[in-house]
Design goal:
about 375 residues; 11 helices; alpha/beta; Rossmann fold; 8-stranded mixed sheet; 2 domains; 7-stranded mixed sheet
């Protein structure tokens, strides 16, 4: 494989580009001919001229028919897949559990397809972990978005007019996004509390200067990949009751609980939202997969009858496209570099990373879960 095509994103929400100019230059040194669809990087602050200066070619959308390797941020349409060259390789976020018809389309077209969501959480694959790199930025921006929405300042201030108390943030879910949200809120001067079903993260929360909210849920834990295990109905009810008082005192609440390939758990009920203060803000980071908060809506801002603002941004990381593209592009480069030897990219089925993320190969769906 010698020719790579960087596809422009069709989703109107999307501002990122899969490869930035500096990584296009690095790919050229690996032996690739880099071709970028015109306008692909414009929303992220990378004009066509920046790519040509880096040694890449700017081409039209039809170049996908000629490319050996196609890379994007979001999944393509079935119509686009049909235009990819047979035997070519495709890489992006694919949401394979919910887009099985796309995986079938890749197999039918004879295209090798890899899903970034399926990259294993191992030490060697960490440099390719798109979910973590983007969740990190989403967690950061969730705090910035809340700060821009609420009608109060965040830090404590001692003024001649009196002392202004710091805002109280409540972070629900302490994964990559949650930890970054805690860190960012603390840097802005907030008083932060956090909750997670995994007691093992308490030390991490405290290390960032936040308070860990303890709720006895009985036996919980995490998966081999480090995700929180799904709770029983009884545990969810205990969790809600334990969180209600913390919610009522919070100025800002950020929920980050997602279950990959499944609907997000409904953690915050309408009753809990009704118990919050007028003017408080909620950012539901799981809104795209069903939402953690009752009443949240994808890509909408909802103001409840008691004056609580619920933000349902489905792609928080797209609000900082230059940085998120930089991180995504580095993940792409690291993936390609890992499988490139003597200036040739090889589909190494025996490699645990390739085996884990490849969803279509040789005209077949590689994992029965996606059939």
């Amino acid at each position: 494989m010698k020719t790579i095509f960087v596809k422009s994103e069709r989703d109107p929400r999307e501002t990122r580009v899969a490869i930035i100019p500096s990584d296009a230059q690095r790919l050229s040194k690996l032996g690739w001919s880099v071709n970028v669809e015109s306008g692909a990087g414009a929303k992220a602050g990378f004009p066509d001229s920046a790519f040509t200066e880096a040694g890449a070619s700017v081409v039209g959308a039809d170049f996908a028919r000629e490319a050996d390797f196609v890379v994007a941020v979001r999944k393509p349409s079935v119509e686009e897949i049909a235009k990819f060259k047979k035997g070519s390789f495709y890489l992006s976020l694919l949401d394979p559990f919910n887009e099985k018809h796309l995986i079938k389309a890749f197999a039918d077209a004879g295209v090798y397809a890899a899903s970034f969501e399926m990259i294993p959480r191992s030490t060697i694959a960490q440099k390719m972990d798109v979910l973590s790199s983007q969740a990190n930025l989403a967690g950061y921006y969730s705090v910035i978005k809340a700060a821009n929405t609420i009608n109060k300042i965040i830090p404590m201030m001692m003024t001649p007019a009196g002392t202004i108390s710091p805002l109280k943030f409540f972070i629900v879910g302490v994964g990559v996004a949650g930890l970054q949200a805690i860190a960012t809120a603390k840097r802005l001067g907030a008083r932060v509390e956090a909750f997670d079903t995994r007691p093992v993260v308490e030390e991490q929360v405290k290390s960032l200067g936040a308070k860990f909210v303890k709720i006895d849920l009985g036996e919980t834990g995490q998966t081999a990949q480090g995700y929180a295990k799904e709770l029983t109905a009884e545990q969810i009810e205990k969790q809600r009751k334990g969180m209600a008082k913390v919610c009522a005192g919070a100025d800002v609440m950020i929920t980050t609980a997602k279950l990959f390939g499944r609907k997000a758990p409904r953690i915050i009920t309408g009753e809990m939202v009704a118990g919050m203060k007028a003017g408080s803000v909620i950012v539901d980071m799981a809104v795209e997969s069903g939402g953690n908060v009752e009443g949240s809506k994808p890509d909408e801002v909802v103001i409840t009858p008691n004056g609580v603002t619920i933000i349902g941004d489905t792609c928080l990381e797209a609000n900082v496209p230059s940085t998120s593209s930089q991180m995504y592009s580095a993940n792409v480069y690291n993936f390609i570099e890992h499988f490139t030897a003597d200036k040739q990219f090889a589909v190494k089925m025996e490699d645990p990373i390739m085996k884990s993320c490849l969803v279509s190969a040789d005209g077949k769906i590689t994992d029965p879960r996606f059939m």
